[in-house]
UniProtKB/TrEMBL annotation, chain A:
Enzyme class: transferase
Pfam families reported in the protein's UniProt record: Transket_pyr, Transketolase_C
Family membership: Belongs to the transketolase family.
Transketolase-like pyrimidine-binding domain residues: 15-180
SUPFAM superfamilies assigned: Thiamin diphosphate-binding fold (THDP-binding), TK C-terminal domain-like
Cofactor(s) this protein cannot do without: thiamine diphosphate
Superkingdom: Bacteria
Keyword vocabulary terms for this entry: Thiamine pyrophosphate, Transferase
Alphabetized InterPro entries for the sequence: PDH/Transketolase, THDP-binding, Transketo_C/PFOR_II, Transketolase-like_Pyr-bd, Transketolase_C
Protein name: Transketolase
Gene Ontology molecular function: any one: magnesium ion binding
EC number in record: 2.2.1.1
TrEMBL record, chain B:
Highest taxon of the lineage: Bacteria
Record has Transferase as a keyword: yes
Enzyme Commission code(s) on record: 2.2.1.1
Keywords: Thiamine pyrophosphate, Transferase
Organism: Kribbella solani
Top-level EC class: transferase
Cofactors demanded by this protein: thiamine diphosphate
Family: Belongs to the transketolase family.
Protein name (record): Transketolase
Length: 322, 292
C-alpha cells in the first residue's frame, strides 16, 4: 500500500517535512562518510543543529553567501564528497542560479540542492522571501532533476534516492505542516507519477504541500458524484509524460495545483506536454503575482489552492466539458 | 599547410626528472611556455576567435604549474590524491588546452578542432569533455568558490593534495570571490593558492578606470590571506613562489602575478585592444617571428 487510506485527509495530524529531512540526512551521513551538509548560516532554519552536533566537521557553514555555498559544494563533490546544500529556497535558487547552472548542472557534479521553506511558507515576510519562482527557474536548466515531495515520507524517500544516485538534484523541503499522504513503505521512483486516487471524470495533478489539498478536493467532488483522479507528480523534471497524456485522453481535463508561480512550474510542464501530445483543457492553479501580506495558509486559500478552490476548478472543467 | 599539420608540430613534454636543478627546471619551463605560446597563436589565428591577450598573460603561470608544480600527470587525471588546478578565467580556455596538450593530457592534433562544431574544445573549458579540466568555468567569479570546495574536501580527507586557482584581476570585481575568500580564511585552507593574473586590463579598459582593485595586496591580507607578489612572466620567480606555498601555516595563499596582456608580443603587450582580437595574416607572421 503506497497511499495511506484515511477517512478524510484534512483531519489527519500534520508534520513539518524538515524534521524528516534532518532525520534522514543524519541516517545517510551515519552510513556514508562522504555525505556533508553545506549551509549559508541556515543551520537553525534548516533544523540542522542536531546534525552539526553529530557531525561537526561535516556541516560546512560558509556564512550568508549563497554563490560561494553552491560553488563550494561543487568543489566538495569533485573531491568525492556528496554535499547536501541546505538553504532557504528563495536565496538558494535566486542568488546562486548561475552557480546551479554552471557549477552543478552543466558540470554534472554530484551536488544535492535542498530548497528549504519554499513557496509561500514565509507568508507574512513577503514576496522577497517567497520562493514561488524556483521550479520555473530550475526547470529551464538541462540535466537538473527537480523533486517536490508532498509529505515527510516522500521527503525522506527522495533524499535517500538522491544520496544513492549520481548527479545533480534539487529537492524542495517544506516547512508548512502537511498530513501524511503516503504509507511508510513508499519508495521514490524518479519520473513516475503516483495515482493517489482513481477517477475518470477529471484529473488533478499536484505535488508538494498542495497534494493533500487536491485529495481533499477529490473527497468533496466525490460527494457530488464527480470522480476525480488525483495524480501526485513529485518529479517535475523529468515529468511523467505518459501519465499526463493518459489523463488528457481519459478525463474531461486537467487541473494542476502547486505552491508555485502559475506558469513555468508543474502547470507549465503539464500544459507543454498536453499541447504537444494530446490537446486537452488545463486549468493551472498557482500564484500569479507578488502576493499581499498574509500567512501561508491564507495565501494558498486566496489563490484557489484550498480544497474548495481546487474542487471549483475541477467542477468547471467537468461542467463545460459535458 | 593543412590545419591539422599546423597543430601537430608541438613536442609533448614529459616531466623533468625530480632531481633536476632549479636552472634546468626554469629553462625547461621557459621552453614549454614558448612552445605553448606559438601553438596558442596558431590556435586563435586558425579558429578566427579566442582571447589571445588573456592567453598570453596567463601562459607563463600555466607552464610553471603544469611543468613543475602540480602533482598531476596524464595517467592520473582521476587519481583522488592529485593536485587540483582550476582556471577561473575560463575565457582563456585556449591557453589551457594548449598547455594540456603540451604536457600530454590532450592529443596535440585535437587542438585543430578548437571551437569547431561538436569539438570537445569549447570556448570555455568543460570538465566532462576534456581530461585534466577540473571545473566548467566561463562566467566569472565561479572558480574560487569551487576551489574552496576542493580544498575543503582535501582538509576533510586529511589529505596533502593542493588546490590552485587562477583568477583574472578584472574577475575579482565579482562579489562571489570575496565570499569565497572569507570562507577560505575561516576554514584556514592553507593548501589553497589563489593566483591573480594581474594584467590590469579588462575587456574594454583598465581595471583602474573600471572598478579599481587597489590596494589589492592589502585587501587580500585583510581577508586573511598570506600575500605574495611576483613577476608573472618570470619563470624562476613563479617556480619559487608556487612551490613554496603555504607561506603562512593556517592561511591560504594569495599570489599576485604582475603580468601584461598579450606578453611578449610588441604590438599586443599591455594593449587593451587585444582582449579578444584575432591576429590577421601580417600580425600572425610578426607575432610568430617575435616568439621564435
Amino acid at each position: 500500500m503506497t497511499v495511506l487510506e484515511t477517512a478524510s485527509i484534512a483531519d489527519q495530524p500534520r508534520y513539518d517535512c524538515r524534521d524528516a529531512y534532518v532525520e534522514t540526512l543524519a541516517q545517510l551521513a551515519e552510513a556514508d562518510h562522504r555525505i556533508v551538509g553545506v549551509v549559508n548560516d541556515s543551520v537553525g532554519s534548516s533544523k540542522l543543529n542536531s546534525f552539526r552536533k553529530a557531525f561537526p566537521d561535516r556541516l560546512i557553514n560558509v556564512g550568508i553567501a549563497e554563490q560561494d555555498m553552491v560553488g563550494v559544494a561543487s568543489g566538495l563533490a569533485n573531491g568525492g564528497r556528496i554535499p547536501f546544500v541546505s538553504a532557504a529556497s528563495c536565496f538558494l535558487t535566486g542568488r546562486a542560479l548561475e552557480q546551479i547552472k554552471a557549477d552543478v548542472a552543466y558540470s554534472k557534479t554530484n551536488v544535492k540542492l535542498c530548497g528549504m521553506s519554499p513557496g509561500v511558507a514565509y507568508g507574512e515576510l513577503g514576496p522577497t522571501h517567497h520562493s514561488i519562482e524556483d521550479i520555473a527557474w530550475l526547470r529551464a536548466i538541462a540535466g537538473l532533476t527537480i523533486i517536490v515531495p508532498a509529505d515527510p515520507i516522500e521527503t525522506a524517500a527522495a533524499l535517500r534516492w538522491a544520496a544513492a544516485s549520481e548527479g545533480p538534484v534539487f529537492i524542495r523541503v517544506s516547512r508548512m505542516s502537511v498530513p501524511k499522504v503516503y504509507a511508510d513503505d513508499y519508495s521514490f521512483v524518479l519520473g513516475k507519477a503516483i495515482t493517489v486516487r482513481e477517477g475518470g471524470d477529471v484529473t488533478v495533478i499536484s505535488n508538494g504541500t498542495v497534494l493533500w489539498r487536491a485529495l481533499a478536493a477529490a473527497e468533496r467532488l466525490a460527494a457530488e458524484g464527480i470522480s476525480a483522479r488525483v495524480l501526485s507528480m513529485p518529479t517535475v523534471r523529468p515529468l511523467d509524460v505518459d501519465a499526463v497524456v493518459a489523463a488528457a485522453r481519459e478525463t474531461a481535463g486537467i487541473v494542476t495545483a502547486e505552491e508555485a508561480v502559475s506558469g513555468g512550474g508543474l502547470g507549465g510542464a503539464v500544459a507543454e506536454t498536453v499541447v504537444q501530445r494530446h490537446p486537452a483543457r488545463v486549468s493551472i492553479l498557482g500564484i500569479p503575482e507578488f502576493a499581499p501580506t498574509g500567512s501561508a495558509g491564507y495565501l494558498l486559500d486566496r489563490y484557489g489552492l484550498s480544497p474548495e478552490g481546487i474542487a471549483d476548478a475541477a467542477r468547471k472543467l467537468v461542467r463545460t466539458g459535458s | 599547410m593543412s590545419l591539422t599539420a599546423e597543430h601537430t608540430t608541438m613536442p609533448v613534454r614529459a616531466r623533468l626528472p625530480v632531481h633536476s636543478s632549479r636552472a634546468e627546471q626554469v629553462a625547461w619551463i621557459a621552453e614549454a611556455a614558448k612552445q605553448i605560446r606559438i601553438q596558442d597563436l596558431k590556435l586563435v589565428h586558425h579558429a578566427g576567435a579566442g582571447h589571445i591577450g588573456g592567453d598570453f598573460s596567463a601562459i607563463d603561470i600555466l607552464a610553471t604549474l603544469y611543468g613543475a608544480v602540480l602533482d598531476i600527470s596524464p595517467a592520473r587525471v582521476d587519481d583522488p590524491e592529485r593536485d587540483r588546478f582550476i582556471l577561473s578565467k575560463g575565457h582563456v580556455a585556449g591557453a589551457l588546452y594548449t598547455t594540456l596538450a603540451a604536457f600530454g593530457f590532450l592529443p596535440v592534433e585535437e587542438l585543430a578542432t578548437f571551437l569547431k562544431p561538436l569539438s570537445a574544445l569549447n570556448g570555455h573549458p568543460n570538465r566532462n569533455k576534456v581530461a585534466g579540466v577540473e571545473a566548467n568555468t566561463g562566467p566569472l567569479g565561479h572558480g574560487l568558490p569551487v576551489a574552496v570546495g576542493h580544498a575543503l574536501s582535501a582538509k576533510l580527507d586529511v589529505s596533502l593534495r593542493r588546490t590552485y586557482v587562477l583568477v583574472g584581476d578584472g574577475e575579482l570585481q565579482e562579489g562571489s570571490n570575496w565570499e569565497a575568500m572569507m570562507a577560505a580564511s575561516q576554514y584556514q585552507l592553507d593548501r589553497l593558492t589563489v593566483i591573480v593574473d594581474r594584467n590590469r586590463l579588462q575587456q574594454g579598459a583598465t581595471t583602474k578606470e573600471t572598478n579599481d582593485l587597489d590596494p589589492l595586496p592589502e585587501k587580500a591580507a585583510a581577508f586573511g590571506f598570506a600575500v605574495v607578489e611576483v613577476n608573472g612572466h618570470d619563470h624562476g620567480e613563479l617556480l619559487d613562489v608556487l612551490s613554496a606555498v603555504p607561506f603562512r601555516p593556517g592561511k591560504p595563499t594569495f599570489v599576485i602575478a604582475h603580468t601584461h596582456k598579450g606578453h611578449p608580443i610588441s604590438f599586443m603587450s599591455n594593449n587593451v585592444a587585444w582582449h579578444h582580437r584575432v591576429p590577421d595574416a601580417a600580425e600572425y607572421q610578426q607575432a610568430l617571428e617575435e616568439l621564435q
